[in-house]
């Protein structure tokens, strides 16, 4: 095992030296041209391509020569790809999800649910960010926890809509998601409040009192109250409006959802529940994103016809409960074939295992998803789904210069990044796990802290 780790490290360091990356890291204002590599743009493939970046943005992508004066990086024999986007993630919002003091993704207030904003609790120095970055992840959509969350450790009594007095009515909303980048620095927030999050299906039923029907009625009533408030704010301020079940902050946060301007991420698994959500979205004029959709392949045509995107984990193939009886690893392929825009998630909340996003995409390919669709599902599709098309997740002129140079196919687990740029700035190829590995590997000098001298 030690020999294998050393060999892998030698390969990566050798590739770094071959690319001429031992020099000072590139700054955002530098003109950098990556030449000779196999370029995956997110929507196409360019052999022997050239990617030019300057000022934090991509200037050009094609097959031409590097511009005069540019710092040239020879990526011959390598693969150049956009940075990956982790969706349904907790990166920057949780260090140890089971330790409440380090988890800012959940909210237990009895008077605040929809207005909960994860962007205020982001930690740019989280040790989870470099680990994810070394998996090629350069951006993430950070979402609050709720009883239907797909990953991490959560407890229903610790999530939005619950408190010492039990679930209040309504408590169907977990809060608002944010987009971050994973570059070193003090400010990782890209855009706050990009979507509202709510559980449906079994989890939503639990919040609403135990039944799916109750959750649906409660949800519609909530929308009616939000619209009533939006039309009568002055009367509300005068205390001249009938009592409403939500706080003013929650009502304000839900106005863009009720008006169809803010997407609503709905966690749902069962095919029957998916159809109910699609019907709800059409009747109420909502812009929805399905999260999970483990039985989505059964109703793929209906999802596609509704133009609703899906965030999914292609490894979800076990009937862990009755709402996932038809879960299968061909779900991603079937949804894509039907014309659904999909984004592939990492594992366990995409925090400590966000780096496995590319592995999941590779597994989806092995179960029928076309390779180019898998690349799109972890790059350009997440940007499109969250209304930031062309801003990141793609190698194209004008997009953020999030560029990763790989030793080989990025969906192959043995491939490693040899250079990572975020907003045009080169990032260090290290993380806390790597530093600990190097410290203790071989038991050499420095392997023990000063308080533990060698015997």
What does this structure look like?
Pfam families: Amidohydro_1. It comes from Brevundimonas halotolerans. This is Imidazolonepropionase-like amidohydrolase. This protein has 455 residues and is of the alpha/beta class. It has two domains: 2-82 and 416-443, Roll (Urease, subunit C, domain 1); 84-392, Metal-dependent hydrolases (TIM Barrel). Helix content is 28%, strand content 20%. The chain has 13 helices and 16 strands. Strands 1, 2, 3, 4, 5, 14, 15 and 16 form an eight-stranded mixed beta sheet that branches. The chain has an eight-stranded mixed beta sheet with strand order 6-7-8-9-10-11-12-13. A hairpin with a 7-residue loop joins strand 8 and strand 9 (189-199). Helix 3 (201-208) packs across helix 4 (212-231), helix 4 (212-231) crosses helix 6 and helix 10 (357-366) runs antiparallel to helix 11. The longest helix is centred in the middle third of the chain and has 20 residues, at 212-231. It is globular and about 65 Å long. The model is unreliable at 1-8, 10-14, 16-23 and 151-170 (pLDDT under 50).
Summary keywords:
Urease, subunit C, domain 1, 455 residues, eight-stranded mixed beta sheet, TIM Barrel, alpha/beta, 13 helices
* Number of discrete helical segments: 13
Order of helices and strands: HEEEEEEHEEEHHHHEHEHEHEHHHEEEH
Low-confidence stretches: 1-8, 10-14, 16-23, 151-170
Q: Kindly report the CATH topology of the largest domain.
A: TIM Barrel
Overall shape: it is: globular
**Rg value:** 23 Å
What is the total domain count?
2
Share of residues in strands: 15-25%
Distance separating the two termini: 25 Å
| CATH homologous superfamily designation of the largest domain | Metal-dependent hydrolases
CATH top-level class of the largest domain? Alpha Beta
Classify the helix fraction into a percent range: 25-40%
Main β-sheet description: 8 strands, mixed
From the coordinates shown, what is the CATH architecture of the largest domain?
A: Alpha-Beta Barrel
Q: What is the typical, i.e. mean, pLDDT?
A: 88
| Number of β-strand runs | 16
């Amino acid at each position: 095992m030690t020999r294998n780790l050393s060999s892998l490290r030698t390969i990566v360091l050798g590739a770094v030296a071959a690319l001429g990356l031992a020099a000072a890291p590139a700054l955002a204002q530098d003109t950098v041209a990556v030449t000779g590599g196999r370029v995956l743009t997110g929507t196409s493939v360019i052999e022997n391509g050239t990617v030019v970046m300057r000022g934090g943005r991509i200037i050009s992508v094609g097959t031409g020569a590097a511009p005069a004066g540019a710092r040239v990086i020879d990526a011959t024999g390598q693969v150049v790809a956009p940075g990956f986007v982790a969706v349904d993630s907790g990166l920057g919002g949780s260090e140890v999800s089971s330790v409440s003091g380090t988890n800012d993704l959940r909210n237990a207030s009895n008077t605040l649910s929809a207005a909960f904003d994860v962007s205020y609790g982001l930690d740019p120095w989280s040790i989870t960010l470099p680990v994810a970055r070394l998996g090629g992840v350069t951006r993430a959509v950070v979402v609050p926890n709720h009883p239907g969350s797909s990953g991490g450790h959560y407890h229903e009594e610790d999530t939005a809509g619950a408190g010492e007095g039990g679930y209040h009515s309504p408590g169907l909303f977990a809060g608002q998601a944010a987009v971050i980048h994973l570059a070193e620095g003090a400010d990782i927030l890209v855009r706050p409040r990009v979507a509202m999050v709510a559980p449906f299906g079994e989890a939503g039923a639990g919040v609403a009192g135990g039944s799916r029907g109750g959750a649906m009625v409660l949800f519609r009533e909530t929308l009616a109250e939000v619209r009533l408030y939006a039309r009568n704010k002055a009367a509300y301020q005068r205390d001249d409006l009938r009592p409403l079940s939500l706080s003013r902050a929650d009502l304000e946060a839900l106005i863009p959802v009720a008006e169809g301007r803010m997407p609503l991420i709905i966690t749902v698994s069962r095919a029957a529940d998916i159809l109910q959500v699609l019907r709800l979205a059409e009747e109420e004029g909502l812009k929805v994103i399905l999260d999970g959709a483990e039985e989505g392949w059964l109703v793929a045509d209906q999802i596609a016809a509704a133009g609703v995107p899906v965030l999914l984990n292609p490894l979800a193939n076990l009937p862990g409960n009755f709402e996932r009886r038809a879960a299968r690893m061909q779900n991603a392929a079937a949804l894509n074939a039907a014309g659904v825009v999909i984004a592939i998630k990492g594992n366990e909340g995409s925090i400590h295992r966000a780096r496995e996003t590319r592995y999941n995409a590779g597994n989806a390919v092995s179960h029928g998803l076309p390779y180019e669709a898998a690349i799109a599902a972890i790059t350009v599709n997440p940007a499109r789904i969250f209304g930031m098309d062309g801003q990141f997740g793609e190698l194209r002129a004008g997009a953020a210069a999030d560029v990763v140079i790989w030793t080989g196919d990025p969906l192959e687990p043995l491939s490693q990044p040899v250079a990572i740029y975020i907003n045009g700035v080169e990032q260090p190829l290290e993380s806390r796990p790597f530093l600990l590995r190097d410290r203790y590997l071989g038991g050499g000098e420095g392997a023990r802290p000063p308080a533990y001298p060698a015997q």
